[in-house]
Amino acid sequence: KMRAVFLLLLVSTANVGAVMEKGLPRRRLSCVRCCGPSEQPISIISSRYTRMSSDPAYSIPKVQPTIDITILKGEKGEMGEKGYPGAVGKEGERGLRGLNGQKGQKGQRGPQGHCCKQLYAAFSVGRRKPLHSSDYFQHVTFDTEFVNLYKHFNMFSGKFFCYVAGIYYFSLNVHTWNFKETYLHLMKNEKEVAILYAQPSDRSIMQSQSLMLDLQEGEEVWVRMFKRERENAIYSEESDVYIIFNGYLIKPAIE
């Protein structure tokens, strides 16, 4: 009988355990690594700290301190010495084309062109008509052309135009008028460079003046009368030439 009672209790205990096991959730048991002979056992606190630090929810925020530079900034120092110039940089790109300028005035008509520019210049012109000064300054023109190489002397304006820069020789010859003053200027552009003068006399004479000038291309040489208190005049005749103006190039600036 006792044996039967023990078996009955054993069956009842097993049934109760099965019922409790069905009613309660199962709990998983995690495996714990055993320590080796040369290892120290890990404490529960350090293991928990390791799990919490790896979890983003328990990560410690990073603190980045900021420094106010204005607090640390000192006073402005003195300007230092000028340094050595740096190396030349690369050439920049070409800029845009600028606006067109205003159209210039029409220039004076030049002489007849040549296949090669000639380094020569010479002229010799005369005047057959007498001339009395009527103004304070009066331009002297010429009506006779002896030599006018490449037409450098303009017969209409009475001026020699320099097309070839260099050293030039000029001479002016006139015939004075009886009892009248003779006063002329040799002009370079708008400035007098030499004077031809003869006092009034009862005899008319030939009077001359000459000089050398260093001319640049585009400059002009010409003759004008200068009237003062007395009457100023130069004499000539239709049948002969008494007034002659000469000029020629001695040495060009570029040979």
From TrEMBL:
Residues annotated as domain C1q: 116-255
InterPro entries according to UniProt: C1q_dom (IPR001073), Cerebellin_Synaptic_Org (IPR050822), Collagen (IPR008160), Tumour_necrosis_fac-like_dom (IPR008983)
Highest taxon listed in the record's lineage: Eukaryota
A single GO cellular-component term on record: extracellular space
Coiled coil: none
Places the protein is found: Secreted
Signal sequence range: 1-18
SUPFAM superfamilies: TNF-like (SSF49842)
Transmembrane segments: none
Keyword vocabulary terms for this entry: Secreted, Signal
Name recorded for this polypeptide: Complement C1q tumor necrosis factor-related protein 1
